[in-house]
Amino acid sequence: MAADWRFVHLGIVVKDLDAAVKSSVMIGAKLMGERIEAAPPESADRVLMQFVKLGDTELEFFQPVYGRNMISEFLEKHGEGVHHLAYEVGSFEAEISRLRQSGINSILVMKGKNGRSFCFFDSGNLGGMVIELMQHVEETQG
Questions:
Q1: How large is the average pLDDT for residues 22-42?
Q2: What is the pLDDT of residue 81?
Q3: What does the CA dihedral 99, 102, 103, 105 come to, rounded to 10 degrees?
Q4: Given strand 5-13, what is the order of strands in its sheet?
Q5: 60, 10 in Cβ contact below 8 A?
Q6: Interacting residues of 140 by C-beta distance below 8 A, sequence separation 6+
Q7: Where are the alpha helices (DSSP H) in the chain?
Q8: What is the Cα–Cα distance from 69 to 15, expressed in whole angstroms?
Q9: Residues facing residue 54 across a β-bridge
Q10: Least confident stretch, 1-15, 55-69, 89-103
């Protein structure tokens, strides 16, 4: 892994977003002894998603709503569970090229509402888990 990779969050696919978020907030509060806040839910590409910050770690929950997409296909094939590990990288395009050249297949490249780019990579046979590269915030501003 390149030196400029920074772990950002863990993506988890669930059947019931509200129940998963409530459960993680309650468990997080018990483990950490503090009030845990969840970000407001968002909707994108036929998926509901919501972030929960537990200490230094963020959990991103996904619930497919309708139609076929990467999240609904994961749920059908693997059930609920860890979908991806997300890393922010300083040299986004260079890292995408490096991974592709090393034989790692990219699944999806997309731009978020904020103009930030994301690329998802197949991790091989790790239970369907995906690696997400996120463009470093400063790259989107410059």
A1: 84
A2: 94
A3: 0
A4: 42-44, 47-54, 57-64, 5-13, 81-89, 130-135, 117-122, 106-111
A5: yes
A6: 114, 115, 116, 117
A7: 17-32, 70-78, 92-101, 137-141
A8: 14
A9: 57
A10: 1-15
**Residue 37 burial (CB count, 10 A):** 10
Q: C-alpha angle 59/64/68, rounded to 5°?
A: 130
Taking the C-alpha atoms of residue 48 and residue 65, their distance in angstroms, rounded to an integer, is 7
Q: Which residue shows structure tokens 């790259």?
A: 139
Residues 6+ apart with CB under 8 A from 95: 2, 5, 89, 133
Six-digit token string for 114: 């904020």
Full set of structural domains in the chain with CATH: 5-141 (3.10.180.10)
Q: How many CB atoms lie within 10 A of CB 138?
A: 8
Amino acid at 41: P
What does the alpha-carbon distance between residue 24 and residue 37 come to, in Å, rounded to a whole number? 10
> Which tokens belong to 131?
């690696």
Tokens of 2: 């390149």
Asked which of 50-64, 89-103, 108-122, 127-141 is least confident by mean pLDDT, the reply is: 127-141
Q: Is the pLDDT of residue 19 over 90?
A: yes
